[in-house]
Amino acid sequence: xxxxxxxxxxxxxxxxxxxxxxxxxxxxxxxxxxxxxxxxxxxxxxxxxxxxxxxxxxxxxxxxxxxxxxxxxxxxxxxxxxxxxxxxxxxxxxxxxxxxxxxxxxxxxxxxxxxxxxxxxxxxxxxxxxxxxxxxxxxxxxxxxxxxxxxxxxxxxxxxxxxxxxxxxxxxxxxxxxxxxxxxxxxxxxxxxxxxxxxxxxx
Length: 203
Description:
Layout: E1 2-13, E2 19-25, H1 34-43, H2 52-67, E3 73-75, E4 79-91, E5 97-111, H3 113-120, E6 124-126, H4 137-148, E7 153-154, H5 156-163, H6 170-182, E8 186-189, E9 198-201
Parallel strand pairs: 1-6
Antiparallel strand pairs: 1-2, 3-4, 4-5, 7-9, 8-9
């Protein structure tokens, strides 16, 4: 089941004067790696599970070889991968362009229509986590109380992923923690530049 929260769209107001919102997947930074893919394939009783990683390595090498000829690559049932170039472009005094260091900078992906249609049928349900634009202090206080009922300390990682469902940046998290420390709500523990720095609740 896909978990999502609603986020206010910046600078978008409807004809009725109300802000626009859009759904966003919670924990969107949670990436499934090859072991999880193999586990899912195996759970479907496919005999190919053990060969999926070697097969993907072969496909990867073949795609690179085809990219070298300027081709896009369409994988059936998945989609099309298209290389995008970048480089240092200059124009001489005669107005002629010259390029240097031209290389593939990114690879765009266009999903197969049936694959996208199947993905669109996956079920989704809302979560009660704070969303990006919701900095209501009452809601934040409620989430802090909920967290500290189960934990003695709060880390930046927990703030980002547990309280805000992975929807805020490290910069935003640092600003929130700084404000909570300045207000006396939290007490920092450990060096400011330490990866183990955490925060205790002010009693």
